Amino acid sequence: MAPGLVTPEKAARGKLPTDVWWHTIVPTTGREKTGYPTQKPEGILRRIVQASSRPGDRVLDLFAGSGTTGAVASALGRRADLVDANPDAIAVMAARIPHARVDVGSDSTRGETAVEVAP
């Protein structure tokens, strides 16, 4: 557990939360591991999505990588638009989020691909 984590008990005694978020990395043999080199843990993205949107809202990730934002947003009842120029990233996202709609080459000037994810 993170050092100095602000629990409800500590908050009641006056401890204030910091702007540092403690979270473990994606385990190399863990369930959520996709093999994408810069994958972010679902727990961090869950915290961001819950703090910045409501169920039914749309979430945008312009450097989507392995699609963690889209997977978490969908699980939390949000829609997501994921964009990435890397074909390997699109393949990882499509495998990770089977119900996603992939729009290949949606930006013909840069070769970016959009992935739309429904809840």
How would you explain this protein's 3D organization?
- This protein has 119 residues and is α+β, with helices and mostly antiparallel strands.
- The chain has one domain: Rossmann fold (3-Layer(aba) Sandwich).
- 29% of the residues lie in helices and 19% in strands.
- The protein has 4 helices and 4 strands.
- It has helices at residues 8-12, 42-52, 68-75, 87-96; strands at residues 58-61, 79-84, 101-107, 112-117.
- The chain has a 4-stranded mixed β-sheet, with helices on one face.
- A hairpin with a 4-residue loop joins β3 and β4.
- The two termini are 31 Å apart.
- The relative contact order is 0.15.
Number of domains: 1
| Number of DSSP-assigned strands | 4
Rg (C-alpha, Å): 16 Å
Instruction: Tell me the name of the CATH class.
Output: Alpha Beta
The amount of beta strand, in percent, is 15-25%
Q: How would you write the strand order of the largest sheet? A: 1-2-4-3
Encode the helix/strand succession as letters.
Answer: HHEHEHEE
CATH topology: Rossmann fold
Q: How does the major sheet shape up?
A: 4 strands, mixed
